[in-house]
Every structure is written in structure tokens, then in C-alpha cells.
Write a structure and sequence with these properties.
Transmembrane segments: 35-56, 98-130, 136-156, 168-186, 192-212, 228-249, 255-278
Number of helices: 13
Distance between the termini: 21 Å
GO molecular function: O-acetyltransferase activity
Shape: globular
Radius of gyration: 21 Å
Main location: membrane
Strand content: under 5%
Order of helices and strands: HHHHHHHHHHHHH
Helix content: over 70%
Subcellular location: Cell membrane
GO biological process, one term: enterobacterial common antigen biosynthetic process
Number of domains: 3
């Protein structure tokens, strides 16, 4: 998610000089591309929970309150902090934070212009010290870092392209160091993990830019177009499929667990692409609407 926060912050500011009219125009577009699908896909998950509680209650953990008994507070929590710091459709915590950051872009723009690169460094330090995988500091730092590049019209790819080998090597070294620490009984540590994220971010931009410039790669429109649906729908099906596999396959070996860990997301992703293809053919307008297009 750090990569997507960075790209979102960069794109918000890069192509237009920030102004009131530009801000209002972008917010209007993001209401359609972020807020509408955010509400829709959270309601979809609530609907699935309701049906599961009615039809197959044995597959439920029993820890979740019956949807039929939801109060207004429960409904509101579905869209903000239902469980583990995220909405009821947990992967959409990214959209929730991105909506808040988009609304707050005037303050972010002012912060970047007043504090310059030093403000971004300060946020980086806060993220390194206090950031957790899903708390707001993740989005705030990476979105603001992307905004700094966008406001200053800095081409990120051109800046990191000469360092593609170095950034990739640094990323793999950090990974190896983390694995080595785990093997000798020491936790790899969140700071090492976050350092790996920074190197990985640079490596992604550098190598993606190099591939685009040097290789003739055809754009896979069907894969790109279906990506949002796969992202928005995958959480609950993956959870239920995992429960079914554990109940009926009963994996005991590490090899089987690793196999399921790899295969199940691929299956869910492939099903998502197929669902998108069918819906796009028969319900094109509705499909575009629910995917924020």
C-alpha cells in the first residue's frame, strides 16, 4: 500500500498547479472513483455476512454481532473502524485513508510548501518510529512524499532510474538480513521491514521505468480494468475459502500450508477477473459505477 499512497499523492499534484478550482474538480472526480465504490463494497460485505449468518451459521466464528441486530453505531463502524482498525471490508482501509488524505490536500500542499523536504523527512521519522502496517501514518507519510514530488514537478522515474540496480540490491540485502535474523532466533524488526519498504519503493519505480523504456510490453487492458474489482471483493471470499480448506483438507504440513497460501489468492484473483469480464459484458454501466469509473 505505501506504493499506491505515494503514486496517489504524486498524481494529485503533478499535472496541475494546485488551486481552489483544481481541488474542487479533483474532489468531485474522487467522490465517484473512491467514495461511491467504498460505500458500495462495504455494503456488499455486510450483505454477504447477513446471508452467511442466515444460511450457513456454522461457517461463522460467532464473534460478529448478527447483522439483523445492528444499531446505528454498528452501521457507522462498518465504514470506519469495524475490526482491526479497518472497515467491515478490511482491505478497503486504504480507500478510507485515501479519501481522508484527498480531502486534506490543501493542508498537505501548505505543509509541503512551508516545510519543504524537511517536513517530509519529519513525517518519515514519525512513520519509522510510530507507524504500523495499517495506521494513518503510513498513508500520511507516503502520500505527502508523493505530493512533494508532484508539487515540485519532479519526475520520480527519471530520478531513480540510474539507481535501479543499487535499489534492488539494497532491497534484497535487507530481505536476506531479515531472514537471517529470524533463522538465528531474532525478530527481523519493524525498522528493518520499513527500510525494506523504502528500498522496494525505489526499486519498483526504477525497474518499471526501465522496462517501459526498453521493452515492448503490450498493455493488458482486461487485467488492468478488473484490478479494482479483484481488490475490493477478494477479502471475504478468500477468508471463506481458507476456512473451507482448513475444515475439509486439514493441512498439517508446512508444504501444504505454503501451497494453499500461494494458490488460494491466485484462485480468488482469477475468479475476480472472470466475474468482471461477465459483468462488464452484460452490465457495463453498473460495473463501471461499482469500480469507480
Amino acid at each position: 500500500m505505501p506504493l499506491f499512497f505515494f503514486i496517489s499523492g504524486f498524481l494529485f499534484f503533478y499535472y496541475d498547479d494546485f488551486s481552489k478550482n483544481v481541488y474542487l474538480g479533483k474532489i468531485k472526480k474522487r467522490f465517484k472513483s473512491l467514495v461511491v465504490p467504498y460505500i458500495f463494497w462495504n455494503l456488499v460485505v455486510v450483505g454477504f455476512y447477513f446471508m452467511a449468518q442466515m444460511v450457513v451459521p456454522s461457517m461463522m466464528s460467532g464473534q460478529m454481532k448478527l447483522v439483523a441486530d445492528f444499531t446505528m453505531s454498528d452501521w457507522l463502524s462498518c465504514f470506519w473502524n469495524f475490526k482491526d482498525g479497518g472497515p467491515v471490508n478490511l482491505p478497503l482501509w486504504f480507500l478510507r485513508d485515501l479519501i481522508c488524505l484527498s480531502i486534506g490536500t490543501p493542508l498537505i500542499c501548505l505543509f509541503v510548501k512551508m516545510c519543504r523536504i524537511y517536513g517530509v523527512v519529519l513525517l518519515a521519522a514519525c512513520w519509522l518510529i510510530f507507524g504500523t502496517p495499517t495506521n494513518f501514518l503510513v498513508g500520511l507519510f507516503f502520500f505527502t512524499a508523493g505530493a512533494w514530488f508532484g508539487i515540485n514537478k519532479v519526475d520520480v522515474v527519471e530520478k531513480v532510474l540510474p539507481y535501479r540496480k543499487m535499489s534492488a540490491a539494497a532491497y534484497f540485502l535487507v530481505m536476506i538480513a531479515g531472514i537471517a535474523m529470524l533463522l538465528v532466533g531474532f525478530p527481523s524488526g519493524e525498522y528493518l521491514h520499513k527500510l525494506g519498504i523504502l528500498f522496494g519503493l525505489g526499486a519498483c519505480f526504477a525497474w518499471a521505468g526501465w522496462i517501459v523504456k526498453t521493452k515492448n510490453i503490450r498493455r493488458r487492458a482486461w487485467l488492468e480494468d478488473s484490478s479494482f474489482l479483484v481488490y475490493a471483493y477478494h477479502g471475504l471470499p478468500l477468508l471463506f475459502l481458507s476456512k473451507i480448506c482448513v475444515r475439509y483438507i486439514q493441512p498439517e504440513s508446512s508444504a501444504m500450508l505454503i501451497f494453499l497460501f500461494i494458490v488460494l489468492p491466485v484462485v480468488i484473483g482469477a475468479v475476480g477477473v472472470a466475474i468482471y469480464a461477465v459483468m462488464k459484458r452484460f452490465f457495463p454501466c453498473f460495473t463501471s459505477w461499482m469500480c469507480g469509473k
